[in-house]
Amino acid sequence: MAAELLRVPAKITTSRLAFGVFQLEPVEPRKCLPLQLRITLVAKADGALLCEPRALLLDSAASEAREREQQVILDLSNAAGDYNNQPVELRLEQLLEGVATPVPYKTMELKLQRPFGSDFDDF
User: Fold this and answer.
1) What is residue 114's DSSP assignment?
2) pLDDT of residue 94
3) Is residue 30 left, alpha or beta, with left meaning phi > 0 and alpha meaning psi from -120 to 50?
4) Burial level of 11, CB count in 10 A (0-12/13-18/19+)?
5) Any bridge partners for residue 103, and if so which?
6) Contact between residue 14 and residue 44 where contact means Cβ atoms under 8 Å apart
7) Model pTM?
8) Nearest alpha-carbon partner for 57 in 119, 6, 1
9) What is the pLDDT of residues 26-76, one digit of tens each?
10) Residue 57 bridge partners (DSSP)
C-alpha cells in the first residue's frame, strides 16, 4: 500500500496545517493491505513536537480514486510560536502491528512563517 501527500503548502502561515493524503490503490484481501500512519509536525532544529500526533488509517476499498483521499488537519501548539521563520518537518510514520516503534514512511520540509501575534492552541 502506498500513499501520497496532496496540497501541502510550502509555508505554514496559520495555527492550522491542512492537506490531503491519497491512498494510491484500493485495499484488497491478500493483495493490498491497509496502511496505518501517524502524522506529526516537528521542529527541524531540535525535534520538538509542534502538534498533537494524528493517526490515519488508509483502508478504503473504493475503486473510485477520489473516494480514497482523506483530509488531514493539524492544529499547531503554542510551542510552534518559538520556531517562527524556521524549517519544520511533516512526518508520516507507519504503525505496524506488533512493532512498538513507528517506521519512517515519508517526510516533507516546510517553513513556519507566522505573522506577528499568536493564536496557537494548547494541546
Assistant:
1) P
2) 95
3) left
4) exposed
5) 94
6) no
7) 0.86
8) 1
9) 998 888 789 999 999 999 999 999 999 999 999 999 999 999 999 999 999
10) 36
Contacts 24+ apart (CB under 8 A), 58-63: 58/1, 58/3, 58/21, 58/23, 58/27, 58/34, 59/27, 59/34, 59/35, 60/23, 60/26, 60/27, 61/26, 61/27, 61/28, 62/26, 63/26
Residues 32 and 6: their CA atoms lie apart, in Å, by 21
**Closest-CA residue to 51 (of 17, 4, 21):** 17
Query: What is the C-alpha separation between 108 and 93, in angstroms, rounded?
Result: 12
Segment holding 57, helix H or strand E: strand 54-58
Given a cut of 70, whether residue 10 has pLDDT beyond it is yes
Distance CA 48, CA 45 (A): 8
- How far apart (Å, rounded) are the C-alpha atoms in residues 35 and 65? 16
Three cell numbers, residue 113: 512563517
The count of other CB atoms within 10 Å of the CB of residue 75 is 18
- Between strands 103-112 and 35-43, the pairing is unpaired
Any idea what DSSP says for residue 118? -
